[in-house]
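Consider the following input, taken from an annotated entry for Transcriptional regulator (Streptomyces rubradiris).
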Amino acid sequence: MSVVRRPKTPREKYGEELRLRRIAAGLTQEQLSEIVVCSPTLISHWEAGRRLPKPDDARRIDQALGTDGFFERWLQDLESKYTDHFAAVAELEQQASLMQQFALTLVPGTLQTDEYAGALFRAYRPNYTAEELEEFVVIRTKRRRILDGPSHPVVWTLLDEAVLRRRVGGPQVMAKQLHRIADMAEAGRLRLHVLPYEVGAHALMQSLLTLMAFDDSAPVAYVEGFQSGNLMDDPALVSGCQTAYSLALSDALSQQESLALVRAAAEEHAHGQQ
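Applying the prediction step yields:
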């Protein structure tokens, strides 16, 4: 039986090409690292697509492998505005046919309004400029485009009730954000469910989770913490995440009940009742 793999991201294709060119040049990772002036571990990260070389590193790679600027030029198309741990996830979002996302405390990035995203940035960046804030909001909300195109994925959104109650950006920002989510659900753009406080403990209460499935590739799972993230494609790990999502979903309110709760929470925020 053939093994179905998830699609390779552009970063992974870059790394694979680097590995093939290095082997063709008769160099080990250790030998290449000496020429590029870095650690062999970093070469391994580049070849696995976990990280990208800096422009100076790519220039030295081309010199070492005799590739005439190939890797330096290609790098310009791969430079990401996202953090290292999220860059591959952002690329895979563009290819997914199904996304199942669970949010523990914050609205998922693909659903955030500009005002909500800006409030998040201001909360964890004590010193920022207006230009930095604008760039962050553009980068964050650009991910919403995957929901608008003709090949957009099917989206399931499961929210802990805490997402509805934490007032991010003030009452009006929060009300607008929740109404946007409800509008999308009513328009059939996403399937919405809420895990109410009364459920108590549930299978996903320790972490946010995103599951992605693809038409011709194996599924992946992504969990995230503070300034860190873990993209998993090991079948056993992904299966465990899928089971946890199913268990949590079984404890959630129906879509109709969830919509009613989200709308009610939005109105409470708008009228300062929380």
